[in-house]
Amino acid sequence: MVAGGVPVRAARKNAPPREDVLVAAMATIAERGLEGLTMAGLGREVGMSSGHLLYYFRSKDELLLQTLEWSEAELGGERRALLARRGPVGERLQAYVDLYVPTRPRDPHWTLWLEVWNRSQNAGPQERERQAAIEGAWHRDLVALLAEGVSRGEFRPVDADRVATRIRALLDGFSIQLAVGLPTASREEILDHVREYLTEALAPQGA
């Protein structure tokens, strides 16, 4: 078999580690946006032909999904570290929110997320399951955090799964507005809105 006019065996031998390609893809999105990410340009960054990249990733959709999975793995490590901290659950919940919300308009991680969501209209069941796995990790961690807050008496008794679903819907709505640059609210205002909602939804009765 030949990839891009070069025997596959040679392509494997000369190709950089897959993670190097994903890191380069994310860096390109951060610097030039999605419009600046092309298979040919990425190939030049990592010393591969676009044919080699297509051999490894099959399509740009798959490249984007794998880049998102890599980025989410990095964020997942940060999220698990902050959730493992000692101290009030409320503080860790605020840290979760801070990690979730984009840092700025055109935040590269959220830019990539939105593009993968958009392309998922034509994705197959396996690709959809991989996207659902990413969503599920954020949801499970939030449910565990809420349940801990309830068990320690920091939060009122609530259905952690249902409240987590509502919180993430709120975060997604605000995050999309910020990521695409809508002039509705700054990041600081968004975080204030979320803090106010969390107080209303979780503060113990009489607190």
Can you describe what's shown?
The protein is mostly helical and 207 residues long. The protein has a two-stranded antiparallel sheet. Strand 1 and strand 2 form a beta hairpin. Helix 3 crosses helix 4, helix 5 packs parallel to helix 8 and helix 9 packs antiparallel against helix 10.
Topology of this structure?
Layout: E1 2-3, E2 6-7, H1 8-14, H2 18-32, H3 39-46, H4 50-57, H5 60-83, H6 89-100, H7 108-119, H8 125-151, H9 160-179, H10 187-202
Antiparallel strand pairs: 1-2
The helix content, as a percent range, equals over 70%
- Whole-number average pLDDT? 88
Overall geometric form: elongated
Classify the secondary structure makeup into a structural class. Answer: mainly alpha
Radius of gyration: 20 Å
Strand content: under 5%
List keywords for this structure.
elongated, mainly alpha, two-stranded antiparallel ribbon, 10 helices, about 210 residues
Summarize this, please?
The chain is an all-alpha fold and 207 residues long.
